[in-house]
Amino acid sequence: MTDHPTQPLPTVEPRRRGGGRLAAIIAGGVVLLAGGAYGAGYAMAGETLPPKTVIEGVPVGGLAPADAEAKLTQELAARADAPMTLTSGEHTISKAPADLGLGVDAAGSVRQAATGKSFDPRVIWDNLTGGTDHPAVVARDDEKLAAAASELAQLVNAEPVNAELAMVEGTPTLTEGANGRTLDAAATQEALAEAYLHQTDVTAVVEENEPDITTAEAQETLDTVATPALSAPITVAAGDKTFEVTPEMIAPALTFEPADGSIKVNVDQDVLLEQATKSIAGLGLDEPKDASFTFEGGKPKIIPSVDGMGVDKEEFAKVVQEAMVKPSERTATVTVAQQKAKFTTEMAEKLGVKEITGEFTTYYPATAYRITNIGKSARLINGVFLKPGEVFDMNKVLGPRTLARGWAAGGAIDGGRVVERMGGGISQTTTTTFNAMFFAGLEDIYHKPHSLYFSRYPMGREATLDYNSVDMKFRNDTEYGVLMQAFTNNPKQGAQGSITVRVWSTKKYDVKATNPVQSNFKDPGPAIKDDSAICSPQSAMRGFTVTYNRQFFQNGKLVRTEPFKWTYNTLTPVECTNPNAKRDRIER
């Protein structure tokens, strides 16, 4: 075996080293790409919105903020401007969103959706691939929202209404209560703001409040007290006798008042006693008699009071109230005892009815109807007595003017013409009474002069009367009693009649009337030609305004002045043109 010299083998670079360089190159490229994308993502932040961005259903991804705002404004316009209706029950108001203070803040909405510049990889990634849904930012003017809520509140808000009981034609009757309503302004404003862009019909937030007395509570009182009270008569024992109190007597005396969340049923003592007067009279008691006034020799005279036996009204009302709720055994007992008169002789004497404080006389042509009506009215006024604070009411004193009550038909004014009315002529009595009151210095509550001027009355200082529409009232505003005296001269037909009215009391003032001042004269229109079968001709009268004063003097010094003013109408003349007409002239 031959030995060969050892030759060194050629050295070869491992392939591994060349592969590492490539990997490094690739890795470097990736880093460069990633860095570029990262930089691009950073650069894009704030310049455009993330690609998948949606605001209030409007896709705005990839748009610059200004473009996104424009698109958002355009595509939301219909919803943003749609009128909104705010409702509560039957009440509704409708307004444009701008009037409600609501609108889309497009710039704010875009700013909310934008990510902004950041080196945070998550933000960079969102800028490159992301984006989410966002609600629109709503601009709101709370003052306008509050104004809208307030407008509806004025329609909706209502105080609770208590259920009530009342006597209606003798029957206890229930009126149902109602809950109160209060619109919650703050909650309603929020409801409007939240509904904006999503719905146009919004229900207001309203709270209901029960009344203090509900319908159910009133019904219970009706069922357990008021209805049983009128279910049957009550037998009342008084000594060894009895009398009956019927439901018809109890009904006018029942009263109802709210008390501690319920209805309290009361019995009016005075009314119950008055209603039962005839029944109590059956006991045969010598009842007390109040003092009263009459005239003797033309001057006031006191008819003394008389004490007697009677039923105490407080006890009477109490026992009736206890018995009236019982379904059976409706009995009660009262004590009969001596009683003083309510208005005693001493009381009458202290009221100072001693002298004439006001007096007036008027004159009239004594036609048949005037003799009847003026005479009757004077008799009704004569003897009327007013305690301090009480009111004289002419229509109440005279009552309805009907043929059955003894009145006659006569002249009256209606629509500027003299016509025939039952009770015609009693304005003569009313005017005379008004003037007596006027000079007595009493308080004028209400009077109305005639619409036309009649020369037999003081100019402006007079009063007409109609049972249905015109009254004459005055108040005894003194601390003394007032006794009315009225009489006529009992004229024969065709003669001159007169009526005098006097006020008896204690003089407090000397009263004077200033001279009347006329102004604003007005002429009547052209004559009316009346061709009817019955025609009452009338002459023309001018209209005018009159003013005067009532002056109050004490110890010769003027202490008060009361002005009066009235305007008289014109009277249009009437010519009867029918030659066959019955010319029935009615006396004015």
Your description of this structure?
The protein has 588 residues and is α+β, with helices and mostly antiparallel strands. It folds into 3 domains: 31-156, no CATH class; 216-343, Ubiquitin-like (UB roll), CATH 3.10.20; 351-583, no CATH class. Strands 22-30-29-23 form a 4-stranded antiparallel beta sheet, with helices on one face. Strands 31, 32, 35 and 36 form a 4-stranded antiparallel beta sheet that branches. A 3-stranded mixed beta sheet has the order 2-1-6, with helices on one face.
Strand order of the largest sheet: 22-30-29-23
**What is the radius of gyration computed over CA atoms, rounded to a whole number of angstroms?**
49 Å
Secondary-structure content class: alpha+beta
Q: Provide mean pLDDT, rounded.
A: 88
Q: How many structural domains in the coordinates?
A: 3
How would you characterize the largest beta sheet? 4 strands, antiparallel
User: In percent, how much strand structure appears in the residues?
Assistant: 25-35%
Helix content: 25-40%
Task: Enumerate how many helices there are, as a single number.
Answer: 17
- First-last Cα distance: 184 Å
